[in-house]
Amino acid sequence: MCTQVVAWGLPKYVGKQIANWIYRHRVSSFEEMRNLSKQTRARLAEVAYVGLSEPVMGQKSKDGTIKYLYKTKKGNFVETVYIPSGDRATLCVSCQVGCKMGCRFCMTGRQTWCESLSTSDILNQIFSLPEYDNLTNLVFMGQGEPFDNTDAILKALAILTSAEELGWSPRRITVSTVGILPGLKRFLDESECHIAISLHNPFPLERERIMPIQKAYSIYDVVQLLRQYDFCLQRPHNADASKQRRLSFEYIVFKGLNDSHMHAKELVRLLQGLDCRINLIGFHAIPDSEFVGASAQEMEAFRNYLTHHGVYTTIRASRGQDILAACGMLSTQEQQRQIRQADYPANS
């Protein structure tokens, strides 16, 4: 921020003042920055904008989850999910409108890719959230692939965790990826936030059938890269876990597709020696899908096998399914169509 304001012909200290107003007070205009001179505010209005904009709409689930719709600076729309749970409140943040990865079980992957969000659009989902003051955790697990938008993601994380800006602990932030190696390596080198890998099948050919990214970046190569870094598994009563970065693998359990003894055994082999956890996720049915989710009993049996063989495994609770806010269900394609149709009626 300080470097930028100098480029605009303003004193360096103005950068710190602006950061304080935006990140601490969450103002939406330069006029609200009362300790800046009138001339400085006028200059800022000429060359920049604050970028905060409230959600267009919100939907609340019966379980308390709230899905918000935000409009991007380019006029597209993106969804963000607020998930309260006891003394924790997590925000699921999006980084793209649509997604290029084409995972066959994901609604976002079916949506036409429109844009990678700017750092401003990413941060706006957080700062403009009505429940911002309640937030305890952030997960970049919404629409889009973070490491298909690496520069904006890393810049957003730097702002979120900088002591001079927002000051969030990186241990309160998790970024999820299908495993794009160049972006993943940059993240591991430049950030201390937690990482989650979308795995979903340990066998390369089977994984490729549901996740095309496997052809470009094999899960074996992803795991090999991860072995070069240190992680700390968060187990109950592990006092050191809060001080180190965590590694987790996300695994949607499909009935008859990736839930066999053979798959569980291969997962154990693949992840042997990694200090990590597996989060098992129930499949949330999407229209015209050939996939069926495993039953609760089948997921428990799968978890028990993995845990018994040394892979710490949990089953993630499903939230917001009734408002299409659960894992793999986010898509703004229909919302964009309806909003644009309302703005520009066919007979106008």
Task: Characterize the structure shown.
- This protein has a ten-stranded mixed sheet with strand order 1-2-3-4-7-8-9-10-11-12, sandwiched between helices.
- It is an alpha/beta fold and 348 residues long.
- The protein is globular, with a radius of gyration of 21 Å.
- The protein is 34% helix and 17% strand.
- The chain is built from 13 helices and twelve strands.
- The chain has two domains: 1-50, DNA polymerase, domain 1 (Orthogonal Bundle); 51-343, TIM Barrel, CATH 3.20.20.
- The longest helix has 13 residues, at 296-308.
- Helix 5 packs across helix 6.
Question: Under the CATH scheme, which architecture of the largest domain would be assigned?
Answer: Alpha-Beta Barrel
| Strand percentage | 15-25%
Shape, per Cα inertia axes: globular
- Top-tier CATH class of the largest domain: Alpha Beta
Please specify the SSE layout and strand pairing.
Blueprint: H1 2-7, H2 13-24, H3 38-47, E1 57-60, E2 66-71, E3 77-85, E4 88-92, E5 96-97, H4 107-110, E6 115-116, H5 119-127, E7 137-140, H6 150-161, E8 173-177, H7 181-190, E9 194-198, H8 204-210, H9 213-216, H10 219-226, E10 247-253, H11 261-271, E11 277-282, H12 296-308, E12 312-315, H13 333-343
Parallel strand pairs: 4-7, 7-8, 8-9, 9-10, 10-11, 11-12
Antiparallel strand pairs: 1-2, 2-3, 3-4, 5-6
Helix pairs in contact: 5-6
What's this model, at a glance?
The protein is an alpha/beta fold and 348 residues long. The chain has helices at 2-7, 13-24, 38-47, 107-110, 119-127, 150-161, 181-190, 204-210, 213-216, 219-226, 261-271, 296-308, 333-343, and strands at residues 57-60, 66-71, 77-85, 88-92, 96-97, 115-116, 137-140, 173-177, 194-198, 247-253, 277-282, 312-315. The protein has two domains: 1-50, DNA polymerase, domain 1; 51-343, Alpha-Beta Barrel (TIM Barrel), CATH 3.20.20.
